[in-house]
C-alpha cells in the first residue's frame, strides 16, 4: 500500500458504504454502494481524478464495492451510467457487469445521452 495515500471506508448506514482513496491533500477517487431492495446493492458515483485515470484505481474501488456487497449478503450489484462514459463502461465490463437496459434521448447533467442500466450477480 502506498503510504502517500489515505484509503478508507465510511459507513453511510449498516447496509451502505462509501469508499475513497486520496493523497494527503486532495481527493482522487471515490464510489458509493447503497442498498437497493432486499437482494441488491447500487454502485454509484464512481469518480477518478483525470490525472489517475487508466491506473487501475477505478477497478480497485469497484472491487471494494463488490466485496462489501457480498459481505452484506446481496445477490447482485446494479449501476446506472451513460453511454458516453467509455472508460467507466470498460471497467464495468471487465468486472463482469452486463448491460440490461438502455434509455435513449435522455438528458442527464445537461447532456443529451443514452442512459444505461447494468447489473452483476455476486
Walk me through the structure.
The chain is an alpha+beta fold. Helix content is 20%, strand content 51%. The chain is globular, with a radius of gyration of 15 Å.
What share of residues are in beta strands? over 45%
Which spans of ≥5 residues are poorly predicted at pLDDT below 50?
A: 1-7
Major sheet: 7 strands, mixed
Q: What class would the helix/strand composition place it in?
A: alpha+beta
Helix content: 10-25%
Record field, number of beta strands: 7
- Strand line-up across the major sheet: 1-2-3-4-5-7-6
N- to C-terminal distance: 26 Å
Radius of gyration: 15 Å
How many helices? 2
Name the average pLDDT: 82
**Topology pattern, helix = H, strand = E:** EEEEHEHEE
Write down the overall geometry.
globular
Provide key terms for this protein.
122 residues, alpha+beta, seven-stranded mixed sheet, 20% helix, 51% strand
